[in-house]
Amino acid sequence: MTSIAIVGAGPQLGLAIARTFGSQGFDVALISRNRGKLDGLVEQLTAAGITAAAFPADVFDRDALTQALKDAAAQFGGIDVLEYSPVGVFGSPALTAPTETEPSHVQQQIEFQLYGAIAATKAVLPAMREAGAGTLLYTTGAGSIDPVP
Questions:
Q1: Coil, strand or helix: which one is 61?
Q2: N or C, which end of the chain is more exposed by having fewer CB within 10 Å?
Q3: What domains appear along the chain, each with residue ranges and CATH number?
Q4: What are the beta bridge partners of residue 29?
């Protein structure tokens, strides 16, 4: 049995990825912070004949994210694919020239995109290495919600 954990399981990109992998026989673990939205996505996938489950966690809470991935692995017998694509709404940070950019300008995005991805990877990579197989996918769906020219 194969499974995918989708961190950032939103109604656009996350659901499309879940449908694609689920239609190929993958069990789908959906991880996002909103339990109500996750349950609705699980219902849609289940109605399409895809085995799916919700594991609520916020990527800013590294311990909760790690636990959600461990719970998903326990339920599905492991995680074969990690897909990390959280989408957050932080307001529009002012664009600055490279010479004017300060660490504080990008800190929230670094916490969200990079540190969350590191925590998720650390949660699944040891088992993948032990199995000798696994896939890590890092994408972003923010442009689908708020395109920047």
A1: coil
A2: C
A3: 1-88 (3.40.50.720)
A4: 5, 53
| Interval 93-138: pLDDT, tens | 667 788 988 888 888 888 888 999 999 999 999 999 999 999 999 9
Average pLDDT of the residues of the chain: 89
- SS3 for 7-58 is ECCCCCHHHHHHHHHHCCCCEEEEECCCHHHHHHHHHHHHHCCCCEEECCCC
How buried is 95 (Cβ within 10 angstroms: 0-12 exposed, 13-18 middle, 19+ buried)? exposed
pLDDT at 11 over 80: no
Helix pair angle (62-76, 116-131), 10° resolution = 30
For residues 139 and 84, the answer to whether their CB atoms sit within 8 Å is yes
